[in-house]
Amino acid sequence: MSDTPMKRSTRKKDSAPRGVFRHSKTAWAIRFACGAGHVHEEKVGPLKSDAIRSHAARRQRVHQEPGWCPAVERRVKTLQVRHNQMVTLRAYGERWLESRGAELKPRTWDHYRQVLHDHIFPALGDVPLTHLTREMIRDLLTRKAKANLSRETLKNLVIPLRAMLNEALDDGKISTNPAVRLLKSSRGLTEKEARKVEALTQAELTLILTTANKHVPDWADFFRVLGWTGLRLGEACGLQWSDLDVQGGFIEVRRNTQYRKHQILVGAPKSGQARRVDVPRVLVDGLHARQGIQEAETALKGTLPSVWMFPAPTDSTKPVNPAFVRFKLWYKVLALAGLRSIPLHTLRHTHASLLLQQGESPQYVKMQLGHSSIQLTVDRYGHFIPGANRQAVERLAEATQQTDSSEDRQRVGR
Fold first, then answer.
1. The predicted structure's pLDDT at residue 376
2. Can you give the pLDDT at residue 203?
3. What does the pLDDT read at residue 262?
4. What is the pLDDT of residue 164?
5. Strand 20-24 vs strand 27-33: parallel, antiparallel, or unpaired?
6. Burial of residue 132 (number of CB atoms within 10 Å: 0-12, 13-18, 19+)
7. Which of 163, 179, 255, 318 gets the highest tally of CB atoms within 10 A of its CB?
């Protein structure tokens, strides 16, 4: 027997934990038992450290979820993908509308339903949800534009579709929303689309308020509220006497009212938040006097005074219907004042424009109107802000205007 000692290998051995092994010369793999007792092997990659982390993660999940099995999970995902591929835009849209009925305002829900049923579903309803592409939606909008639908109408078509697909994205039905940012950068192509919001002049607002005070005196305060506070029509109809702070000189806008199918719908303001609106002292005094008259009249009748600042003419327990104000009063006042037919919402635009023209800050106008951001206020009413740098163009014109002096002619001739 030879006494020559054996040579030991100098090759470094891999000290991998149990369950981590080499799959090949260039890859590592892991072996573990799932919660169901089945042994699984998974190829990880070229780094042993990644394999060790993957093995630890699998063992931890088995500990946290005793019944977890990766093979079953893969089968469930495969079936879910196949199911999603079979779900059409119409089928998902109908379920989405049903689920959103309790969250959206009735008027908004009706609008979404009309858009989907009249425009989206007839063209794209049979397309599988996962097969819907941005090109399909653009083709639809192109056809609608050729049918003389305005740019604003096209935007209104995209809004419910985008909202529905956002929820489908959250549900894992689709990987991306093909309706995101559609029409965001489009610009007006017609004169009508290029126009900004229309507002009345100070003289026109004075004429309207004077005409209302003369011909519909019982509702003159209502039009003052719209013109002097910038409230939306539904917000003004929903005012209650408890919203008026006589000492502070402001109104708390807490609700919006509307009538749908002869039912009163009382909800939050459009922004979803209550806000405080400044009221001129002359209007505060007029409303306070109006409240006293209502209380005196009901006392004579032996009934309780209405909680509504502007109750319905036929039932003081209900707020006035916005449609009554719009069609029975507003257009009548416009005709008697000799003014053009304009929407009642113009009074809100007029309130904002006159404040800005008087030098009030956009931030204050934003707070009065209850806008969600000052950017919205500036984008909509920025053209009413007087030019602060007006003198700059005057100086430019003065410096470059033509003169008849001989000195200037000689300078040019050189």
1. 87
2. 95
3. 79
4. 94
5. antiparallel
6. buried
7. 179
**Residues 129 and 173 sit within 8 Å (Cβ to Cβ):** yes
- Collapsed DSSP state (helix, strand, coil) of residue 258: strand
What single-letter amino acid sits at 300? L
The CA distance from 95 to 338, in Å, is: 50
Who contacts 336 (Cβ-Cβ below 8 Å, separation ≥6)?
211, 215
pLDDT digits (tens, 9 = 90+) for 178-193: 999 887 655 555 555 5
- Report the candidate in 239, 268, 266 with the shortest Cα–Cα distance to residue 252: 239
278 sits in which H/E element: strand 275-278
Mind listing the domains of the chain with CATH numbers? 20-83 (no CATH), 88-184 (1.10.150.130), 202-344 (1.10.443.10)
* Location of structure tokens 């959206």: 104
**Rounded (5°) CA angle 73-75-80:** 95
**Below-50 pLDDT ranges, the chain:** 1, 409, 412
Residue 342 CA to residue 130 CA, distance in Å, equals 45
Q: Please tell me the predicted confidence (pLDDT) of residue 133.
A: 94
Nearest Cα neighbor of 96 from 156, 173, 182 is 173
Tokens 């509307």 — which residue?
258
Quote the pLDDT of residue 256.
92
